[in-house]
Each structure stands twice: as structure tokens, then as C-alpha cells.
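Justification of resources, computational component.

The compute hours requested in this renewal are based largely on the per-chain cost of generating structure records like the one below. Each record pairs the submitted sequence with a full C-alpha cell output. That output is archived, and it is also reused by downstream analysis tasks.
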Amino acid sequence: MRVAIAPSMGHACGCHDAGVIDMAEIDEVVEGARGGHSRLIETIAALSDDQARSPSLLPGWTVGHVLTHIARNGDSHVRMIRAAIAGEAVTQYAGGHEERVANIEAGAARPAAELIADVASSAAAVDTAWAETTPQAWAGHGLNAAGEIWPCAAMPLHRWREVELHHVDLGLGYRPADWPAAYVDRELAISLRLMPERLDPAGQRQILAWLVGRSAQPGELALAPWQNRPDHYLR
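The structure output for this chain reads:
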């Protein structure tokens, strides 16, 4: 179902771009992200204290850091969605980037049982908030840690991305091969669309020549960080 939001209504609820909200797509992405929550919780159900303190696949972060980040990220989504339901717009983290970093460090060394419970309760709160979000609230927005507008309608895919990517980062057996097709379809389309902007002119030509059958598959390519686009949060 596509719901049209009147300009006056969109403004009242903090709508970033009053127009048509694709509720069917939002529902599908929300369902996919909920599945991601379930798979993550299953993976960490038997997590030990030793595993929690072990290095993750992210440099400088333990498994406890990654799990704490996932939980606090979930809380930030609840914060923004609840505000949108109330017709308001708030920042992802009340204390900005500094709060995000401090909270991750503060929670990283907790026992495994606390980490598991934290991830599960945060995910459940996200699921509940989504279930209570109205079409008018989906037309609203929050603000990311950099203060940039972040449409509510884009948030479920970002949450799904956080869960799928960091699930792999835990190094506990979940791999890119385990990503569901519905997630890969969406994320790959975005990544391919943005790839030309991440390549220098020589890299663009190497990729193009390969795609049109005029060269072998390129070897090493220099890709700019994938989150560097100013409108990353619109994707």
C-alpha cells in the first residue's frame, strides 16, 4: 500500500520529504530486520564470557564491543521512531557521537549473560516501536549523529544492515553466505549504484571494460569508504 502524506501533515510530523510512503516495502524490510534480530539472538544464545572478551573481526573491538554497539544502535532507532510517532524529530544519540562511543566502551566488558539480555531486549523494543509506527510517523525523520536528516522510512533498512554486517563481524560463525536473499537484493543494488562514486577515474574504466567484455576481471581496486556519501542515510 502507498500512502500519500499531505504537505501540512508531513510538516507537522517532521516529514523530511512529504509525498508517497511505500508501506509494502517498509513492511517487507521490517520483517527482514526482525528475522535478522532472531538469527543474531540465536547465534549468541550460548555465548561464554571468554567469547565475549575475545577479539571480533573489527580492529580494536571485542565481541562485547560489537554486541553493545548493536544494542545501543537499537535504542537509538527506538528513540527516533518514538519521537516521530509524537510528531517530533530528535537526534539518533542525545549526546551525539561522544555518547555513542562512551556507551560502547562502558558496556563492552560486561558478562556474556548481560550482553545477551541487552541485545535481545533492545531488539524487542525496536520490533515493538516499528509495530506501533503510523504512516504519518514513517513520513517523519530523525537526525543522525552528524545532524543530517534521516527519513524514518529509511531506518528499517539501516537497522537491518547494522544487524547483518555486525553479525558477521562477531566472528562467531555467521558469514556473508548466510545473508538472506532479500537483504542481499537491496544492499547489492545500493552498493552497485554507488560504486562509480567510490572509484577514481582509472578504476571506473577498469570496471567498465570488464563489464562490457573488453578486459579481464580487475585485480585490486581502490574504493573510497562506503559510508562517505553525505546522503548515506537516505539510502
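Residues 63-85 form the longest helix (23 residues). The beta strands are 2-4, 20-22, 141-143, 149-151.
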